[in-house]
Amino acid sequence: MKLRWGICSAGNISNNFVSALSSLPSEDHEVVAIAARSKEKANKFAEKHQIAVAYEGYEALARDTNVDIVYIGSINQTHLPLCQLFLNHGKNVLCEKPLGLNKREVQEIIDLAKEKDVFFMEGLWTRFFPAIVKLQELLAANHIGQIKMVSGTFGLPMVQERVHLKEYGGGGLLDIGVYLYQMTLLVFGTPPLSSSTKGFLTDSGVDETTVTTMLFPNKAMASLTCSISQFLDNDMEIRGTQGCIKIKNPFWCPTQLEVTTKKGTTNVLDFPLPKTKATFLFENIVGFQYEAEAVRQCLIKGLKECHVVSHDESLLVAELLQNARHDVGYLLEADMQKGPMTCQ
To answer: For 64-117, what is each residue's pLDDT tens digit?
Structure first.
């Protein structure tokens, strides 16, 4: 089955996603349409990636019967209305993280996807990297014993306007902290007993640097540091009663695991990414292809949800991120709204 993709927005992430798709067999994946806010941007994107159809605005993409699934790569605050637009037209959707600005938005999106009986997934691409698949195998085999501690950091000096403004759903937690949270939940496989966050805000009122502490059953815990003002180690360590596994930098798109046993023996496991002639703006972006192919396999099987990134987990991540923002005094207008939002 060839999966015919429509791309919503012509920004950097969409460019990277389409470049990654180009490294997959053309008989399996094809980008058939691009939609952007302006015709100029859509045409430029289409020319660069050799896409046949370019739309100004998103309504035409939603109506395009030649599109099997829409990838939404727009900025955070647009995810809810755009998901609603495409889902209401019966389109399958893969939406970039964070799925919504808070738990209410995520719940609205998931409820609508179920109502329309279409496939829907949040784009947590990390879950599909071979290194993370291997990590899950090691944890399932009890390779390092009972997990007692997860520690992770994700910090980069980020100057993009969207990251620093509330109206764009900015801040470190929603932009990069989501990776720390979803990986912690993957490791423990259960919601935390408690989660609390301390930190500082930028002058514009979004979170700048935060530390989140989560407590889990069996006296286990996680310590997660996120910052948009400084470089951090950007790796994750998983410590158990019989050893330790480090997901090496960049942990959100990893190619190496460092496994240390209780006896002190350390092995580095390498997971090289596929070779490609495509060019990318960020590290290891070709790894988007793992997520894209997983989506295709779900659609071949007639699934409406991917067990690797379940709807329930997207809801839990959204709730944890929302609570963390509130802990440090970062509230959004979306947090005050109670009724449904719609795309105009």
So the answer is: 999 999 999 999 999 999 999 999 999 999 999 999 999 999 999 999 999 999
Give the predicted TM-score (pTM) of the model.
0.96
Residues 230 and 245: their CA atoms lie apart, in Å, by 25
